[in-house]
UniProtKB/TrEMBL annotation:
The keyword ATP-binding applies. Belongs to the ABC transporter superfamily. SUPFAM superfamilies: P-loop containing nucleoside triphosphate hydrolases (SSF52540). The lineage of its organism: Bacteria, Bacillati, Bacillota, Bacilli, Bacillales. This is ABC transporter ATP-binding protein. Residues 6-234 form the ABC transporter domain. GO terms for molecular function: ATP binding; ATP hydrolysis activity. It comes from Radiobacillus deserti.
Length: 290
């Protein structure tokens, strides 16, 4: 059973008299991966920093497990792990020393089993005894992710987690995020690589000019999911116009439908002897919401 972990209630943030976030309200639960999307300068990083108490809201309230975050941060901070922008690492420590320090800073004992389980999942175990300053940018990013989760937080915030990581590493990070979800954690991830967010997220928050927009449309289960292609005839064209928004391409007609209506649509076509030339599975293109 998913538990409500994070609540934003009418959160507004001003920086140097500029309004950066305006009346942000949403809820998020355990066992979810939420994608934060929006154009550059929209307020994504500011929102993430408010979640992590790196910035305090000008007005409104943030609750973690129904406890006000910014009034009880000593207790609630242990429930949050984050990687915001570039990872802040200690260059003269080894990877192992850095992760051990992260555990100690959260009041946890050094536990080699905990360190190994995370470094194995992110494939950085071979670099445990290497100084951070000698790691590649992609490997530093993985160490940053490991540092964010080493204390077993309930909420994990990852800002552009695949920065500087190669294709193989990106797939590994995505699998790691899904593992965190299976463990019941709430993961909030932002990225400019929209296809990557789409492949792992259960829900989306879109922010533009400091406001949440289009959230219901993006997350709607009725978003078109299949494209049906049938041969063009005058009779077929007239018939389908009564049911669908159809378009013509060459000698074919096509129309898009939701997953929920797929079986009903197929039965309708078969019943009326309309040949189906192709059925294409569509993926939601988040670019159209920008």
């Amino acid at each position: 059973m998913n538990v409500k972990l994070l609540q934003f209630k009418n959160v507004t943030k001003n920086i140097n008299e500029n309004r950066v976030l305006t009346d942000i309200t949403f809820e998020a639960s355990s066992g979810q991966v939420i994608g934060l999307i929006g154009p550059n300068g929209a307020g994504k990083s500011t929102l993430l920093k408010v979640i992590c108490n790196l910035l305090r809201p000008t007005s409104g309230e943030v609750l973690v497990n129904n406890v006000p975050l910014h009034k009880n941060f000593k207790d609630t901070s242990k429930k949050i792990g984050y990687l915001i922008e570039d990872p802040s690492l200690y260059p003269y420590l080894t990877t192992k020393e850095h992760l051990a320090l992260c555990l100690q800073l959260q009041g946890n004992p050094i536990n080699q089993h905990t360190i190994n389980s995370i470094t194995d999942a992110l494939n950085i175990t071979p670099f445990l005894n290497k100084k951070v300053k000698k790691l590649s940018m992609g490997m530093k990013q993985r160490v940053g992710i490991a540092s964010a989760v080493i204390h077993n937080p309930e909420i994990v915030v990852l800002d552009e987690p695949t920065n500087s990581i190669d294709v193989k590493g990106i797939n590994l990070v995505k699998q790691f995020i899904l593992t965190l979800k299976k463990q019941g954690k709430l993961v909030i991830v932002s990225s400019h690589l929209l296809q990557e967010i789409q492949s792992i997220c259960d829900q989306y928050l879109m922010i533009e000019n400091g406001k949440l927009v289009n959230t219901e449309e993006i997350n709607s289960p009725s978003t078109k999911s299949y494209r049906i292609l049938v041969p063009y005839t005058t009779e077929t064209n007239l018939f389908l116009k009564n049911y669908f928004s159809i378009k013509r391409t060459g000698n074919f007609l096509f129309f898009d439908i939701s997953t929920e209506s797929l079986n009903t649509t197929l039965n309708l076509l078969i019943k009326n002897n309309i040949h189906i030339s192709d059925i294409e599975k569509l993926s939601l293109s988040l670019e159209r919401f920008f």
